[in-house]
Amino acid sequence: MDPYKTKVLFPKTESNISIEAYYKGIVDFAYVDFDYYVSRGITFGQLLQLNVSQKIVTHDRETTGEYYSGKSGRQPQWNTYGDFKWKLDFDRIDEVLEYISKNPAAPDSMAK
Predict the structure, then answer these.
(1) Structural domain includes residue 12
(2) What is the DSSP string of the chain?
(3) Which domain does 44 fall in, by range?
(4) Which of 32, 33, 83, 89 is least surrounded by Cβ atoms within 10 Å, i.e. has the fewest?
(5) Tally of domains in the chain
(6) Is the residue at 107 inside a domain?
(7) Tens digit of pLDDT for each residue in 45-96?
């Protein structure tokens, strides 16, 4: 498997949020066995360099862009500062919410 062509994730974020539970029932991604790599001297940072991800949020690094007003011509610019991220979103949030609405009693719905 080529981690640059296939999305490979850590099973949990640094703050112990289960990425695996978030995507369960929605999409099948590959997850690394972090303990296995650590026991062989491979660090978290090295796995990040191999494009292993620990994020379910998207657009968290965007600080500027265009606001589409619907009018023709040049569009106004937007900027964010500090911790505020105007375009912050969650990966596949529509699919996650649909899964929860169709499976409200499922244990993994509560985890999402």
Answers:
(1) yes
(2) --TTTS-EE-SB-TT--BHHHHHTTT---EE--HHHHHHTT--HHHHHHTTEE---EESTT--EEE---SSSSPPPEEE--TT--TT-EETTHHHHHHHHHH-TTSHHHHH-
(3) 1-56
(4) 83
(5) 1
(6) no
(7) 999 998 899 989 888 877 787 777 777 877 778 788 778 777 788 999 999 9
Q: Are 16 and 39 in contact (CB under 8 A)?
A: no
Of the candidates 105, 18, 106, the residue with the CA atom closest to the CA atom of residue 56: 18
Residue 1 has pLDDT above 70, yes or no: no
Q: Give pTM, 2 decimals.
A: 0.72
Evaluate whether residue 75 is within a structural domain. Answer: no
Distances in Å between the alpha carbon of 51 and those of 36, 46, 65, 70, 105?
17, 9, 25, 37, 35
**Burial environment of residue 58 by CB neighbours within 10 A (0 to 12, 13 to 18, 19 or more):** middle
Residue 87 lies in a domain: no
Taking alpha carbons only, the member of 44, 59, 41, 49 closest to residue 11 is: 44
